[in-house]
Task: structure prediction
Amino acid sequence: MDVTPEAAGGVGSPRAASISLQGIHKRYPNGTEAVRELSLEVKAGELVVLIGPSGCGKSTVLRMVNRLIEPTAGRIMLGDEDVTDVDPVRLRRRIGYVIQNVGLFPHQTVRANVATVPGLLGWSRDQTRARVDELLDLVGLDPAQFGRRYPHELSGGQRQRVGVARALAADPVVLLMDEPFSAVDPIVRARLQEEFLRLQAEVRKTILLVTHDLDEAVRLGDRIAVLSQGGHLEQYDTPAALLGAPATPFVREFVGADRGIRRLAVTQLDRDALEPVPGDVEADLPTVPLDGSAYDALAVLLTSGRDRLVVTDGGRPVGALSRQRLLDLGRVTG
Result:
């Protein structure tokens, strides 16, 4: 089902919108400055992760975007629209919001939970039902099996999937996610992250995600914003650049001494970085696909006990990588 622009949040509304934070500031009546002069640009369709220590203003930033908290100063643009000029109820119906403990309505079925915003927007019963079925399928839950269940009948991972489906129900232009996977165990979290990456590749929403987990940030984010106390932006970069060259002592300490290994996990193999294939020993060397990561390649190399491996594309050798070259890819500065 292709949701109409009118149903999704306004005539001509896009399926994803950029977010521009322009010198936003939040000071509470007691004088506490939760966020101070934060500026950040998020492109349409991009997944940006906010990370930093507790109390650095990550969740406050999200709540200012959908006006659950009003900024003291600065501008927040959703596309070309200042969110402070929009009715907050109308604004929130265009923004999906996923929180740590999901927040499903316990007295409503899965189907009714996912249909919450379409119901508020006045969608027809048939349109709503089709959209709910589509989204439950999209997040890996069979509508016939799960639609009539209640939240207490689901596992933690299943409830989180329902929460994502509900947030996407009215085809929002922006998705805000506050510690969305932290309430489940590590195995389920890894599976949810994998499913979420698959989902994002399909729907391409603009996503602002808060986490305290650096591995999650590196795995999910197109770019990562590291915040320190007062919402100060220490560095805003791709995962590989952030891990490879921390911009400040704060970032260097935050990402940790093992950032080289993390960098390998987000460094894709590059055809231009490959060495010629040593034809006389090609058959004896381990192989990895070109679409894998440098971390995967190093793991294969260390397991094999060899000093070189062959990289293939569609089963055909396209180059080789030495152990030293792989270690160089994980080298960090600063």
